[in-house]
# Entry
Amino acid sequence: MLKAKITSLLFLFVSFVVAQIPAYYNGIDFTSNGQALKNELAARISDSHVNQLTYSQIWEALKIVDLDPNNSNNVLLIYGWENGSDGDATNDRSRNKDNNGGNNGQWNREHTYPQSVGTPDLGQVGPGADAHMLRACDVQRNNSRGNRRFANGSGSNSYSIGTNSWYPGDEWRGDIARMMMYMYLRYGNQCLPTNVGVGSTAGTGDDMIDLFLNWNVQDPVSTFEINRNNYLANSNNTWGQGNRNPFIDNPYLATKIWGGVPAQDTWGTLSTEIPVFESTVSVYPNPVKDQIVYIQTENTVEEIVLMNINGQYIQKVNHPTKVQNTYSLDGLQSGFYFLQITSNNQTVTKKIVVQ
# Structure
């Protein structure tokens, strides 16, 4: 019985990680790269955006697409990371979905791409009412973010007074990156990445910045993002727009367009080369037994992160101890996870099942 259960979990896990290319992309030439692929995808997500939501409709849309997978009465709040243990409600990760509005203690609509930094201003129609970019957020945390540009950081969300920049938090940085990439494709120069993030455009071929390319690798796509994307893509849904975020469907599309450290190819068909660091990493045993997993590599690992399939951090170890080219992570609970290993600005993501 236990073997059958583990086999079932493995099947579900592989199904989650390696996905079929959605029929939505039929006709797209995925042998192309750079601006050619960017232009094809931009045309597809624009042409299929058949339902333009109003800004007031976004309230109801978020009550569906931002539902907390662990509590259907709540919505997940972007930038949040805990629920009440420290007495600070502004950093809640989840809140009652009907407790929305403009007062302290409520959640409202966060423009992850701020209206005012668009060229021109995004307004409250079109790009300013695109549900792929708008997220539920604590009112006070939304005000704290304001129109600050995204920048590197670590841990929970924070902002730098000196640079007037905002770090969304380890759990949310990948979500942010993929939303900013979507907005750039969908609305072009009105939503330049250079206006909303702090980073370099060297080597990207346009105004994409390395910050978002790195975050796209460091924080893999979660089931929460996938479910959100699937709902919005279905124009038959009450608040479905009809279009998809390609970078949620496959983060490696960003690599094909802009380069940088290779992201995960969730379709398993677009990437042909294994990054140098990834080729040196071995994770065993898998499935994991006795609550401990071993990571073998000749490289010096700077960070090991264990995440559940919703993208929530379970464990994080900075500068772990190496014994004979082997690192370990123990105390693992049953389930399936992403194991993220970082060395010299390269990140490898492995999938593990813990018995």
Notes: The CA atoms of residues 296 and 323 lie 9 Å apart. Residues 1-17 have pLDDT under 50 and may be disordered.
